[in-house]
Design brief:
alpha+beta, Immunoglobulin-like, Neutral Protease, domain 2, 8-stranded mixed β-sheet, 5-stranded mixed β-sheet, 11 helices, about 25% strand
Length: about 475
């Protein structure tokens, strides 16, 4: 099958503009439509990436270029006889999900700047990094042949960021025969040995829990720029994590924040990339794809990412308590949790994205989803005498759903939890009160934490801001 061939290069030295030139193979006689993705995986809102596109031109058979007209906000009509397209993308923003051109860096997320044929999503891609110098380093999960990158189809190319720079720090480690690459761009880097060792520790713990790893090798792409940024995005065989200014990663707090994000993003390799809501399997980049399962996609991952820092020995119980305090502070200071359930809020991220929205309207799916995950985890452990846990259910879902390429539904998820406790509807009360409902979690959380030897208390300051406190206590026999 002939590929879509895309050439990337800087349009000018004066401004951060990326030029893309694409040859589409075997185009239909009647022409086709070229689609720019309307959203990107990992960010469950419409992205409006077309706002960065100056124009899209098509080359006619006589070599002249004509301006193409839109048929939709993110789609252009390609007339008969045109096979080559050219477009310019403004690329100034630098975060984990953006595309950015700088003097010493080319960072590309294809999902926000590549055009494709939505009627032929099976077409492979060949990507030429046209003006990247031979001595630059390139970090990506895509197959590479020099400055030519290869993707098997639109699903792979849109989920594979590319980072090229004059200088990249690079280290590797191996777990169960899988190679893991650490790439970093920036002036200030973490302590190298500690950084590699901590990655290896949480990687080993997560793979041990799931029993296997979804992809042959994996790439952590780090951006440590001289900008204020904190962001992480998961991909099928890689992640991008941005933290800046770069000196922040040299502080203990900044370092632990980076490691926490990394553990979260690696857990996504199973949960979301493989254990994926049916609405996102495969990804439909042409339109909004709302799902009520954001509390599993992000909430379970948030909870488990922190838990595996504890399981791997990177933090101790007191360290986990400090992470949980920050989570619960956000939980209790958001009255929207008592108005819109975490399942409904998952669906509604597609309405107003990740902004707070109108006062007291909705939940935060990361926070409320993680609180729900903890409640479920303790409930399973309590009902099974510690023999089963939420991770037991996630491992089961990986083997039955993820490995088989089956889409996850709410009923499948909750049935997996019930299977762990050995009772149909065993967690129906939790589901009704804290997933589909907006019940107050205070009594349940205090009891759940106490069963783990931790006392939960809270206080409110003069401005009405809640502060929680977790302290270790002796567990009753």
């Amino acid at each position: 099958m002939n590929p879509i061939r895309i050439l990337l290069q800087r349009a000018t030295k004066e401004r951060p503009i990326l030029m893309l030139l694409a040859d589409f193979p075997d185009v239909p006689a009647e022409g086709f439509e070229a689609q720019l993705p309307a959203w990107r995986p990992g960010r469950y809102e419409l992205g409006n990436f077309a706002q960065n596109v100056y124009s899209v031109d098509g080359q006619q058979s006589d070599g002249t270029w004509v301006r193409l007209l839109k048929s939709d906000l993110h789609r252009w009509t390609v007339p008969t006889g045109i096979k080559r397209l050219r477009w310019m993308v403004y690329a100034e923003e630098l975060n984990a999900g953006s595309t950015c051109v700088e003097d010493d860096l080319l960072f590309v997320n294809p999902v926000n700047c590549f055009l494709y044929d939505p009627k032929r999503p099976e077409l492979p891609f060949e990507i030429l990094l046209n003006d990247v110098q031979e001595d630059w380093q390139v970090a990506t999960a895509l197959q590479r042949k020099g400055m030519l990158l290869v993707a098997k189809d639109v699903q792979e190319v849109m989920d594979s960021p590319i980072m090229a720079a004059k200088s990249l720090w690079h280290r590797t480690y191996e777990v169960r025969g899988h190679a893991f690459h650490l790439w970093a761009y920036g002036q200030q880097l973490p302590d190298e040995d500690r950084f590699v060792n901590d990655h290896q520790r949480f990687t080993e713990a997560q793979i041990e829990a799931f029993g296997s790893f979804p992809v042959p090798e994996y790439h952590f792409l780090y951006l440590f720029p001289e900008r204020d940024v904190r962001h992480g995005v998961e991909h099928e065989a890689s992640t991008v994590i941005a933290m800046g200014p770069s000196e922040k990663v040299r502080t203990e707090a900044g370092y632990m924040e980076v490691i926490g994000i990394a553990s979260h993003e690696l857990y996504h390799t199973w949960n979301v990339k493989k254990i994926r809501p049916s609405e996102w399997l495969p990804y439909d980049f042409t339109q909004a794809c709302p799902s009520r399962l954001g509390y599993v996609a992000e909430g379970v991952t948030t909870y488990m990412g922190d838990l595996f820092l504890l399981e791997s020995g990177i933090i101790d119980v007191d360290g986990w308590c400090r992470l949980m305090e920050r989570l619960l502070d956000k939980h209790y200071n958001n009255p929207g949790r008592l108005n819109l359930s975490v399942a409904e809020s998952s669906f509604d991220t597609w309405l107003d994205g990740y902004k707070p929205g109108v006062p007291e309207r909705k939940s935060n799916i990361y926070v409320e989803g993680a609180v729900l995950a903890f409640i479920c985890d303790v409930a399973i452990m309590d009902k099974t005498g510690g023999n089963m846990s939420l991770q037991s259910a996630m491992t089961n879902l990986w083997e039955r759903i993820g490995m088989q390429g089956i889409g996850l539904t709410e009923n499948i998820y909750w049935a997996a939890l019930d299977q762990c406790v050995g009772e149909v509807g065993g967690l129906a009360t939790v589901r009704g009160a804290f997933c589909n409902g907006t019940g107050d979690t205070w009594i349940v959380l205090r009891a759940a934490l106490k069963s783990q030897g931790i006392e939960l208390s809270r206080s409110q300051d003069e401005q009405g801001v809640w502060r929680t406190r977790l302290e270790r206590v002796a567990v009753e026999a």
